[in-house]
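Support reply, case 0932

Customer input (verbatim):
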Amino acid sequence: MWGTGSPKREFLHVDDLAEACVFLMNNYNGSIPLNVGTGEDISIIDLARLIKKIVGYQGEITKDLTKPDGTPRKLLNVDNLKSIGWKANIELEEGISRVYASLTDKEWF
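Our regenerated output:
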C-alpha cells in the first residue's frame, strides 16, 4: 500500500450512482449543482483491511512509505442531495462483497 494509509476517501457503488441519476432526472429541475456520494469516508488502511477480510487474504498489508499519501481527505458534501430525498443505499462492505463475488463466481450473501 502506498504511504501510511491514513488518507480518507469516499466510495460509491455504481448501482447507487445509477439510481441517483434516475432519481435526479425524475425529481430535480434546479440550477444548484449536486454532489452524488455517500457522505462517508474511510481511511485507505481501513479499506485495505476490509478488502482483506472480504477476500479472505491471510497475508500482511505492507506500507510503502517511499510513496506519497496524497490528499488527506476527499469527501463530498451531499446535504443538498439528501434534502431532496435521495441517499446511497449500498454500504461499502456490501458493495465490495458484491463486486468480489461477481469476479470470482462466489455466491454473495
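We compared this against your earlier run and they match. Two observations from our side: The mean pLDDT is 95. The longest strand covers residues 8-9. Please reopen the case if you see a mismatch on your end.
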